[in-house]
Amino acid sequence: MGSGGMGGFLGAKLAVSGHDVIFIARGRHLDALKSNGLKLISQNGDIHIDKLSVYEDTRDVGPVDLILFCVKLYDTKPAALACKPMMNHDTFLLTLQNGVESADIISNIIGPGKMISGAIYVSASIQSPGVIKHSGGNDTIQFAEDDNLPSARTDILENIFNQAGLIGHRADNMKEMLWSKFVLLCANAGLGSLTDSGTKTMCADPDTKEILLAAMWEVLNVAKAMD
């Protein structure tokens, strides 16, 4: 669900590793995917998939085994509702959104026990319609059930991601997994936008480094207060 930077990257990697992948997209990106296929420009080697199964309306898809939920946070509710026609008793959803609240929103819509939370460490974006640019990250994907225990579903995720050349593994603590990424995201996104700088540049300057660390501690304190 969502074929932007993250969804397009994952879809391309899974497709070339032999999995049947259905892409959900909209607008000019949808048109380009239908006409020209998907191109992934990556530091690890480019991928071009000429023919895709791509849809705008999820009601045309039918039930699937797994949904990778890769939309922006502001699209969570409508995207979760759109997932329902693609789900049956055996379908489960892996959300790879940033933040710590989307899991509750999604579960309230698709029903309890149908979702796994995840965190992905990949930098990818739409370079142009139909073209995804993979620019960084360590290609790691973490995920965990609500009870933090191993399951058949976490085993499936580990297998498919590792087969695709990614680093997929179950996290020991779901909340810790989500907050660990959120700490970095909040601090870097806020100060990075203010200074128009990347993490390395901010850390190289003593003043911005101090502010960056203070922002991280503030998010950590919020996490502790909510635990």
TrEMBL record:
SUPFAM superfamilies: NAD(P)-binding Rossmann-fold domains. GO terms for biological process: pantothenate biosynthetic process. Coiled coil: none annotated. GO terms for molecular function: 2-dehydropantoate 2-reductase activity. Keywords: NADP, Oxidoreductase. Residues 173-226 form the Ketopantoate reductase C-terminal domain. The keyword Chloroplast does not apply. Pfam families: ApbA (PF02558), ApbA_C (PF08546). The keyword S-adenosyl-L-methionine does not apply. Residues 1-145 form the Ketopantoate reductase N-terminal domain. InterPro entries: 6PGD_dom2, ApbA, KPA_reductase, KPR-Related, KPR_N, NAD(P)-bd_dom_sf. GO terms for cellular component: cytoplasm. This is 2-dehydropantoate 2-reductase.
